[in-house]
């Protein structure tokens, strides 16, 4: 994996990558609270940018969120760049904001080809193209498909039959042949970090400046609430190439902490050993944090990662009873959770747990047990969310079958360009009651005297103090959202074009 650098453009097709204002994804928090939680770079777009630049295409990049821009603010910059292709990526909750960006592009550069990909497009590609501001949708891993699109535009060839795309043909939206999942991900260059100012990104609990990375693709687990849709086939980047990118980020951008955004970083003890040994061999001084499953860590793994620079581990717990964990198809137990966090605490690694309020067939006793369990684990941080039936999940299928949501809500949301986000109500819980439980969980966890004493004892520097103050802001917003009983809604116009 080569480092990004100056590449001589030998092609005329100009490609502009644009990241939408991601505060749209942070429902039901206000924009103020969402900004406190963090602004992150878009790895998919930076990855694609590096890939097509390596092929000789001239590129540009605008991060609307990091630059605090809304679509109308970027109008002149898009017009000045005069792109032939504009590339966007979309998550489901952010879909209305992505539409606004695409509409702005078509307004100022009507001949530009707008290509959209990302998780949402792998679920509702045809529905997404009912919006004529998009010309093509990319389904699945994007590198090979997007490069084929760029090469076709460069050659003046048809875009109708490129595998891995959804297109309009004669007024009809058609899904083309599926593209094979790429097995070798080491051939792709590292993201084009030189296109962004890393100092624009921030997160409540991270050292600045920070960067994000992904070292694997795919997930073999099928948790009932997760809409990970690309592939269940695991593919790994070589440890030496991962450390190459880490070293580049440290030496060229002064990065102090790296967030590994893999679904599960700790798969394969042999891989973890090679990764840790490579960092130590190079004497690379940088902190990193990871996402993991409680059943993929043990003392040996955590000790070697800690020695290499691991600062924080994030693990999904979700429920406090084995019964609900089984309903979720989480494939872990309370005992495994207790063991994993105990070892992490003993090794000296900061911990964060994630918990879910209101899964179907959960009882009030189950939720109370989850609240108490989360407070008993000795965590440094905890995050609680009300269960949301995201598209392409078992939870969504069950919610439709039982009438918890009105038919295929997310399909209508895609076609309509937004709408009120459905709050999962069951025979047992109203949406208001679930929000109250979430608030109770946050207050129970963060208002504990032992946790406050522990955080104050560690807050000797400005960064730690700012973490605490930011956390108070987010917590107050969560409490306020419960008191106002607001049901979040997103739609066209919310993000600044009208």
Record field, number of beta strands: 19
Q: Would you tell me the structural class of the helices and strands? A: alpha/beta
Shape: globular
Amino- and carboxy-terminal Cα gap:
43 Å
CATH H-level superfamily title of the largest domain: tm_1862 like domain
What portion of residues belong to β-strands?
Answer: 15-25%
Number of domains: 2
- The rounded Rg comes to 23 Å
The CATH topology of the largest domain corresponds to pyruvate-formate lyase- activating enzyme
From the coordinates shown, what is the CATH architecture of the largest domain?
Alpha-Beta Horseshoe
For this structure, the quaternary state is single chain
CATH class of the largest domain: Alpha Beta
Biggest sheet, spatial arrangement of strands = 3-1-4-5-6-7-8
Mean pLDDT: 89
Number of helices: 17
Largest sheet: number of strands, sense, barrel closure: 7 strands, mixed
Helix content: 25-40%
List descriptors.
498 residues, globular, disordered C terminus, Rossmann fold, 19 strands, 39% helix, 6-stranded parallel beta sheet, alpha/beta, pyruvate-formate lyase- activating enzyme, 7-stranded mixed beta sheet, 2 domains
């Amino acid at each position: 994996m080569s480092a990004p650098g100056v590449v001589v453009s030998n092609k005329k097709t100009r490609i502009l990558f644009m990241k939408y204002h991601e505060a749209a994804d942070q429902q039901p928090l206000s924009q103020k609270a969402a900004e406190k939680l963090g602004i992150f770079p878009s790895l998919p777009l930076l990855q694609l940018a590096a890939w097509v630049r390596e092929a000789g295409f001239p590129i540009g990049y605008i991060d609307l969120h990091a630059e605090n821009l809304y679509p109308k603010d970027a109008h002149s910059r898009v017009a000045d760049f005069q792109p032939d292709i504009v590339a966007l990526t979309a998550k489901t909750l952010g879909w209305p904001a992505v539409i606004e960006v695409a509409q702005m592009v078509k307004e100022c550069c009507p001949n530009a080809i707008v290509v959209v990909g990302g998780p949402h497009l792998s679920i509702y590609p045809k529905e997404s193209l009912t919006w004529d501001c998009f010309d093509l949708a990319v389904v699945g891993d994007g590198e090979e498909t997007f490069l084929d699109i760029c090469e076709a535009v460069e050659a003046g060839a048809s875009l109708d039959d490129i595998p891995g795309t959804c297109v309009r043909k004669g007024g009809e939206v058609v899904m083309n042949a599926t593209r094979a999942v790429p097995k070798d991900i080491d051939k792709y260059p590292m993201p084009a970090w030189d296109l962004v100012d890393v100092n624009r990104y921030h997160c409540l609990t991270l050292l600045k400046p920070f960067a994000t990375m992904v070292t694997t693709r795919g997930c073999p687990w099928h948790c009932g609430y997760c809409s990970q849709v690309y592939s269940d086939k695991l593919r790994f980047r070589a440890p030496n190439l991962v450390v190459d990118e880490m070293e580049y980020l440290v030496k060229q951008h002064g990065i102090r902490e790296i967030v590994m955004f893999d679904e599960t970083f700790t798969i394969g003890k042999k891989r973890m050993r090679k990764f840790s040994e490579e960092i130590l061999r190079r004497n690379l001084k940088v902190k990193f944090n990871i996402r993991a499953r409680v059943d993929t860590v043990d003392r040996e793994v955590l000790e070697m990662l800690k020695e290499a620079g691991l600062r924080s581990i994030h693990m999904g717990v979700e429920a406090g009873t084995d019964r609900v964990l089984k309903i979720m198809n989480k494939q872990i137990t309370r005992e495994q959770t207790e063991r994993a966090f105990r070892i992490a605490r003993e090794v000296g690694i900061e911990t964060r747990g994630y918990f879910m309020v209101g899964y179907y067939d959960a009882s009030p006793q189950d939720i109370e047990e989850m609240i108490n369990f989360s407070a008993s684990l000795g965590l440094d941080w905890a995050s609680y969310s009300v269960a949301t039936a995201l598209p392409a999940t078992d939870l969504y299928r069950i919610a439709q079958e039982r009438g918890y949501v009105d038919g295929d809500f997310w399909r209508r949301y895609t076609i309509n360009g937004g709408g009120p986000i459905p709050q999962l109500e069951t025979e047992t819980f109203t949406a208001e009651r679930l929000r109250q439980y979430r608030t109770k969980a946050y207050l129970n966890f963060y208002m504990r005297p032992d946790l406050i004493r522990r955080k104050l004892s560690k807050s000797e520097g400005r960064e730690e103090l700012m973490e605490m103050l930011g956390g108070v802001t987010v917590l107050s917003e969560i409490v306020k959202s419960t008191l106002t009983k607001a049901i979040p809604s997103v739609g066209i116009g919310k993000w600044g074009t009208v």
